[in-house]
Amino acid sequence: MVLSLLMTFIFILLGMAFFTLCERKLLAGFQLRKGPNKVGFMGLLQPFADAGKLFTKEYIILVLNNWFACFLAPFLILFIALFMWTIYPILFNYYYVEFSILFFMCVSRLNVYGVIIAGWGSNSKYALLGGVRAIAQTISYEIRFSFILLIPVFLSKSFRVLLICKAQHYRLYLMSFLAGFFIWFTIVLAETNRAPFDFVEGESELVSGFNVEYGGYIFALIFMAEYINILFMSVITVSIFIGLPCIILPFLVLLVSYIFIWIRASFPRYRYDLLMKLT
Q1: Beta-strand (E) ranges in the chain?
Q2: What is the pTM of this model?
């Protein structure tokens, strides 16, 4: 069981690394740039160069920081992001949770604690404001997030992701609840703090948000958790709304992940008060 979890986490981290490269390449294409193309063949080794730079960079602890909270928060955020993958029965995952949807609804809500601890422990006004924004943004969408997630549960009469996928072999929930899917995807963009709802890390307003005082390998942990969450939410979106056979599933996950990047390149940041009114 430990070995299977370890293999799962290793492949997730590798997937996350190359997803960042994919995003940079696609954003460069959208903006008529070349993007990373110097490190290795066509820039394929760029994620390893970025990891080497971040994990060897010096991290300076400021005098007024709460050092315990500053170190705890990034590891907590990354742990929650990786831990959620245990609900999905992938190849190297020997054990997965029986009530996986219920488990996902509980664990995913814990992510906001890591953000507020990081903002509070940094002892910075910008960081604290980013953490408070994260709480307001997450709590605002919890009810709709849960209600839409329960629709496939009621239709399939199961809390297991695998059974929800199998229940859609003859009728896709996406076709029956297309409006619900668009509402769900909008909520997912807000939950993962992605553009145009990236208010937690709004550099034009908060310098860098809750992670403004972080650097080096500590910042890398937060960065990794964000992209792992994007991949996981793509997998959950495909599973509960499309649920096609495993051969097609990875391509659909890549398509949903591509939509995350496409929206980031196409839409400006929304106003915070307008986001709150959407709830």
Answers
A1: none
A2: 0.91
State the DSSP code for 269: P
- 69-124 residue pLDDT tens: 888 999 999 999 998 888 876 655 555 677 888 888 888 888 888 888 888 888 88
Alpha carbons 183 and 199: distance in angstroms, whole number:
19
Gyration radius from the chain CA atoms: 19
What is the chain's percent helix, strand, coil content, to nearest 5?
70, 0, 30
Cβ atoms of residues 141 and 187 within 8 Å? yes
Is the CA virtual torsion 78, 119, 56, 39 positive or negative?
positive
CA distance 233 to 243: 14
Tokens 């890549």 label which residue?
254
> Distance (Å, rounded) from C-alpha 32 to C-alpha 207?
27
Task: Write the pLDDT tens digit of every residue in 258-275.
Answer: 999 999 999 888 877 777
